[in-house]
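step=encode ok
step=design start
structure_in=
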């Protein structure tokens, strides 16, 4: 029986795309409006991955202020998104070898989708603007479901978009949020070493860590083989 290429589900920020420079611009514009000094790019990188509200909260906490939940989910989020909408494609770019790897995965028949904690409304225009949307069956954003990663539901929904099987799916991400979501969904996860995490990538507990996207396909093949060997009965 011929093996059907399994679904590959990608995180967005810090995995496929280096979005931190534009996120930092938007966050720093918000902080400046509130009378605070801008944060460094390296500081903002470690704040990305759990959605806009959490990033804003971390940014203000770093600056010495603790906004209320009402402020975070209300006016601060609204103003941050207003700034971000004006700059989200200024410096955001795919990481090295991303496009060529996506092309190879598509040619090999792997169905792909996005599972991100970024809002759906911001994720889609970025993918469109970078001419990447055609590689994916769809996007599950941080606001697409009642829960976001690390809950399993968004990842399971992203697999569903591909019409593929969870039993052959692989997650690719950059943070503990991605690893925990994959574990909750019962699928293997590959972490990139160049993403946005305050935990050393090697300590995230992923099944593999890659330093460049050119290493991704061999790791997917290895994990697929490992899974096949594990599932086969021993006689």
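sequence_out=
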């Amino acid at each position: 029986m011929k093996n059907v290429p399994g679904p590959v589900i990608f995180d967005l920020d810090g995995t496929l795309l280096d979005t931190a420079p534009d996120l930092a611009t938007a966050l720093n514009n918000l902080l400046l409006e509130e009378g605070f000094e801008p944060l460094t790019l390296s500081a903002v990188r470690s704040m990305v991955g759990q959605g806009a509200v959490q990033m804003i909260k971390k940014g203000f906490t770093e600056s010495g202020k603790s906004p209320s939940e009402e402020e975070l989910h209300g006016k601060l989020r609204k103003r941050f998104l207003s700034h971000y909408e004006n700059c989200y494609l200024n410096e955001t770019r795919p990481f090295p070898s991303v496009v060529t790897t996506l092309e190879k995965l598509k040619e090999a028949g792997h169905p792909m989708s996005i599972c991100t904690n970024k809002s759906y409304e911001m994720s889609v225009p970025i993918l469109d603007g970078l001419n990447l949307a055609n590689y994916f069956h769809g996007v599950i954003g941080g606001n697409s479901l009642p829960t976001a990663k690390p809950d399993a539901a968004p990842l399971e929904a992203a697999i569903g978009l591909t019409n593929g099987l969870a039993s052959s799916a692989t997650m690719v991400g950059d943070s503990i949020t991605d690893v925990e979501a994959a574990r909750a969904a019962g699928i293997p996860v590959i972490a990139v070493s160049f993403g946005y995490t305050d935990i050393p990538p090697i300590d995230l507990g992923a099944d593999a860590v890659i330093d460049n996207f050119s290493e991704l396909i061999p790791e997917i093949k290895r994990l697929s083989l490992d899974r096949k060997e594990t599932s086969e009965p021993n006689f």
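step=design ok
step=annotate ok -> The first strand starts at residue 8 and ends at 10.
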